[in-house]
Amino acid sequence: MKKEILDIILTSRSNKQTLAVITRVADGMQWAMLENDSENHKVFSPLEIDTIKKSMRDNKSGLISDEKFFAHIYTPPLRLIIIGAVHIAQFLAPMAKVAGFDVTVVDPRSSFATPSRFPEISLLDEWPDDGILKLKPDTRTAVVTLTHDPKLDDPALVETLKTPAFYIASLGGTRTHGKRLERLKSEGFDEKELLRINGPAGLDIGSVSPSEIAISILAELTAALHGRLVKSKNVSA
Amino acid sequence: MEEKFDAKSNDDVLTTVFDWTKKGHKAALATVIDTWGSSPRPIGSQLGINDKGELIGSVSGGCIEGAVAKEAFKVMELGTPRTLEFGVSNEDAWEVGLACGGSVRVFVERID
């Protein structure tokens, strides 16, 4: 691999772009291709270009064209947006970072969202709905609300439900969650939309301490990412 | 000074490989390009190797990294990429294999 290609991979990652690096297995020659790349890559047939573009959309690396080429798809990191710079967030944020997520904690209360409480984590001093609008969750983003405070959690959920975020969760017991769903229903969301909110947040593994709750949320989020989430605890409004 | 592994910031194979070459080290990159059966790491998983024998990342659950690193040294010397195949391990033989019963194909290249 030429250093230039390595540089392109790292740059596209920090620019949050999806990139394909195509290697000719026989001799190691490599080409880099962005998703909206219109450059004329003469070495590939139109069919091969289509296959590469499809691999990028599906985020699926693999051998193509009778194993002539290896298409390596590099996607930007998954994101986790945490609403509420609370005690549990102090565990969830670094754990999610280790798990490869780009983590942002949103909290307008400046005494909570401090760099000393969240070293090396991005902090956003905004109201949760503004924060969500700014961060624009996509299909590779998870959103978890942790404040317990409807004033902060609800606006975040309202905006998040309008996005394709792959995992949405809200901390709070079954009764709290039931009331939350009632409030959101009166905001105009139907039952199917509200089912997207995982509440109470996290897998039921008997978590008690903040770190254990963070583990249960991270586990549920991972299950959602891989399409293994079992909806069994849903509370109706 | 030798750098210590930090899962929070330094688990990225390509960043580490890039840093190695910037510091003047020779380096190679091994990538899983195909798998059959229950291989432990998916296609696209990478292992970086430098001329001091330092490793970052993985291409298996630890069963074949040693053998891949050995080949990577040759690739670092000669510059010609190689494709390696590893299958099921045979407990009676002194050969490298995957205890999980899967097979992987690994592409090894030098960083130029």
Describe the protein in words.
The complex is a heterodimer of chains A (237) and B (112). By secondary structure, chain A is α/β, with parallel strands linked by helices. Chain A has two domains: 3-74, no CATH class; 79-225, Rossmann fold. Chain A is built from eight helices and ten strands. Chain B is α+β, with helices and mostly antiparallel strands. Chain B has one domain (24-110). Chain B has helices spanning 13-22, 65-78, and strands spanning 27-36, 46-50, 55-57, 82-86, 103-110. Chain B has a five-stranded antiparallel beta sheet, sandwiched between helices. In chain B, a hairpin with a 4-residue loop joins β2 and β3. The A-B interface holds A 1-3, 6-7, 9-10, 23, 25, 27-28, 61-63, 67, 70, 72-73, 94, 97-98, 100, 120 and B 7-9, 11, 14-15, 17-18, 21, 29, 31, 33-34, 43-44, 80-81, 83, 107, 109-112.
What descriptors fit this protein?
heterodimer; A: 237 residues; alpha/beta; Rossmann fold; 2 domains; six-stranded parallel sheet; four-stranded antiparallel sheet; 8 helices; 10 strands; 38% helix; elongated; B: 112 residues; alpha+beta; five-stranded antiparallel sheet; 2 helices; 5 strands; globular
Q: List the helices and strands of chain B in order.
A: HEEEHEE
Based on CA inertia axes, which overall geometry of chain A fits? elongated
Output the strand order for the largest sheet of chain A. 7-6-5-8-9-10
User: What is the CA-based Rg of chain B, rounded?
Assistant: 14 Å
Count of separate structural domains of chain B? 1
Total number of distinct structural domains of chain A: 2
CA distance, first residue to last residue of chain A: 56 Å
Q: What count of helical segments of chain A does DSSP give?
A: 8
Largest sheet, strands/sense/barrel of chain B: 5 strands, antiparallel
What is the number of strand segments of chain B? 5
- Number of helical segments with 4 or more residues of chain B: 2
Q: Would you report the number of β strands of chain A?
A: 10
Name of the CATH superfamily of the largest domain in chain A:
NAD(P)-binding Rossmann-like Domain
